[in-house]
Amino acid sequence: MKRRLRHSESGDARADATMLIMVLFFGSLAYVAMTTNPVYVGVSEGQRAPDLSGSAYDGTTWVDYSLNSSFDPDWVEGSSDGNWTIVEFMDINCGYCKKSATTIGENLELIDNSPATGRANVKFVAVAISLPLGGDEYTKENVINFRNTYGHDFHYLDGMADDTQKEKWQIKATPTYFMVKPNGVIAWAGAEHSDEDVWDAYGRLVPLIEGA
Q1: How are beta strands 155-158 and 121-128 bridged, if at all?
Q2: Is the dihedral of CA 101, 49, 158, 168 positive or negative?
Q3: What does the pLDDT read at residue 32?
Q4: What is the pLDDT of the chain when averaged over all its residues?
Q5: Which tops the pLDDT comparison, 14 or 195?
Q6: C-alpha–C-alpha distance, residues 10 and 156, integer Å
């Protein structure tokens, strides 16, 4: 009888220890879940921007381009350090894109021109995709021609070869704009603002340089 009692007590002790370990384990998981704020990849404001990379024309030649490689995960919210990026998805045969290209040309002084703007630096990348629409052939040469026609001096990414970029960024129409923070989080998505354009968003969201 005594041996059975000792065996039972030993089993109870092991069970209690196992229960304690499980409580601590699940408690730690709950703590992590409550104290962290995971940012998921997506195309809505507050989500991390999907991958954007490929061959881009820089005004001289076609180069490898990667938006995501420029992100700074340690960027501090509200800081005027780092580069914000305006991402435009456009189609060389889109009438609205041509009209928008003129407006972009009128605002070039706001692009990659800090501290002269008095705000954090903002870069611009245009992603040429094929919806497709009738008109010019979807070739790299015609992308260059479009860029030169409007006097743009920023990268034009070739997204015409397939629908990879269009699908990743869920593009249904052009032009479509996003504004991405230096840490890679989408600060502004045009599809969520029918009453505000990207230049209004620029003025509202891009931090001022202290003392500028």
Answers
A1: parallel
A2: negative
A3: 41
A4: 89
A5: 195
A6: 71
Task: Label residue 58 by pLDDT band (50, 70, 90).
Answer: very high
Structure tokens that stand for 17 in this block: 């220890």
Amino acid at 44: S
Cβ count within 10 A of residue 37: 7
* Cα 114 to Cα 83: distance, rounded to the nearest angstrom: 10
Full strand arrangement of the beta sheet holding 121-128? 62-66, 53-57, 155-158, 121-128, 83-90, 176-180, 186-189
Tell me how far apart the alpha carbons of residues 132 and 138 are, in angstroms, rounded to a whole number: 9
Indicate the domain borders of the chain: 1-36, 53-205
Any idea which fold 53-205 has? Answer: Glutaredoxin (3.40.30)
Is 191:176 a contact under the CB 8 Å cutoff?
A: yes
